[in-house]
Amino acid sequence: MNPQIENEIHSCVKVLREGGFIIFPNEIGWCIGCLITDSDSVSLLASQNYDHGAVLLEDEGKLNKYVRELPDTIWDLIRFSTKPLSLLLADALNLPQPIVAESGEAMFRIPKDEFTNTLLKKAGRPIFAALLHSQLQPTRETLILNKPGFVVNLRLSQKSTPEQLVIIRLAPSGRIQFIKK
Fold it and tell me: What is the per-residue burial (b if ≥16 Cβ within 10 Å, else e) of 66-89?
């Protein structure tokens, strides 16, 4: 791996483990994220109403730890998806309360982006991340900006492409509902 990428990932992991936020590029654009094991940071990030907040997992096998019952159709959806895919899954467990909706559902994404997957592997834990808005709004970000943080110095000209994201609600019965195509 490129030494610059390794250094960026190392810096991200250090800040995440200190309870901070990172701003990083992935397949849908620039995201802000924190470790799901840091309840204070998760609560703060979840309260900011960012778009497309999801638990990022390095591979689909990790879903078993966070969802009580997974329908068989999920594996094909993940494997054959050509676009970034977020899955709204019922019966979420082992997650901080702010990530789980009142309905018991939580949003998950298995990134196809090499940088993000490497970051997840090195961090050793899932990351709760949300798409950054094109402009920071001081009233929203003030609390976040007062915590330790790190901005990845790669792909700085990358534009957000949330229109590429597909969001699917998947019931334990296997019923599929497209929320965003």
Answer: bbeebbeebeebbeeeeebbbbbb
What average pLDDT does the chain have? Answer: 84
Q: Check: CB of residue 116 under 8 Å from CB of residue 24.
A: yes
**DSSP structural state of residue 164:** G
Cβ atoms of residues 153 and 22 within 8 Å: no
Q: How much is the pTM?
A: 0.85
Q: What's the half-sphere exposure (Cβ side, CA atoms, 13 Å) at 44?
A: 20
Alpha helices in the chain (DSSP H): 3-17, 39-46, 63-66, 73-80, 114-123, 138-145
* Other Cβ atoms closer than 10 A to 145: 11
Residues 139, 14, 157, 31: is their CA dihedral positive or negative? Answer: negative
CB-side neighbour CA atoms (13 Å) of 74: 25
The pLDDT tens digits for 76-96 are: 889 888 888 999 999 999 999
Asked if 160 contacts 133 with a C-beta cutoff of 8 angstroms, the reply is: no
3-state DSSP: the chain helix, strand, coil percent, rounded to 5?
Answer: 35, 25, 40
Cα dihedral sign, 149-49-74-112? negative
